[in-house]
TrEMBL record:
This is EF-hand domain-containing protein. Keywords: Calcium, Signal. Residues 26-61, 102-137 form the EF-hand domain. Residues 1-17 form the signal peptide. It comes from Sinanodonta woodiana.
């Protein structure tokens, strides 16, 4: 009985560890997939409109406004990019004017963040570099208990 319990715990632990490794390994790949999804003309750089389309992916009801609930549910359930704490931190970063939603008004600052050399294109290197920075420092620590979905 005890052995059985230990075995189940160990299996669970290994599964968790595998999932964690998978997530870590796929982080860069996920970013590339996201990039490719919106780089519709396959020029390996994103224009302003193409970068904006990334945020369109999270606008579930197509009202041109990405709410925190839409962002969290797409981030964790639809695209399975990461966990809710990370998503909440990123949402706060992306809501550059702090009005509680991501809209076209936030895009100029977001584009400027990604376009490191200011040539009005976000190339794959810039995208991966800045995306990695966001993942390393997803905003200030957040209290997951304050996340209310739906
Ligand atoms: Ca929406
Ligand atoms: Ca905003
Ligand atoms: Ca650039």
């Amino acid at each position: 009985m005890v052995f059985c319990f230990m075995h189940i715990s160990l299996s669970f632990f290994l599964l968790e560890a595998d999932l964690y490794k998978l997530q870590k390994r796929d982080e860069g790949e996920r970013a590339v997939l996201l990039f490719d999804k919106v780089d519709v003309d396959h020029t390996d750089h994103l224009t302003y409109n193409e970068l904006e389309a990334i945020f369109g992916l999270f606008d579930a009801n197509n009202d041109s406004t990405v709410t925190q609930a839409e962002f969290l549910s797409d981030w964790t359930d639809v695209y399975k990019i990461g966990g809710p704490g990370e998503a909440q931190g990123l949402f706060q970063r992306a809501d550059t004017n702090g009005d509680g939603v991501i809209t076209k008004d936030d895009m100029p600052a977001i584009f400027k963040y990604f376009d490191m050399d200011g040539d009005h294109y976000v190339d794959l290197n810039e995208f991966l570099t800045q995306w990695g920075q966001l993942m390393l420092f997803p905003s200030r620590p957040v209290d997951i208990g304050t996340v209310h979905l739906g």
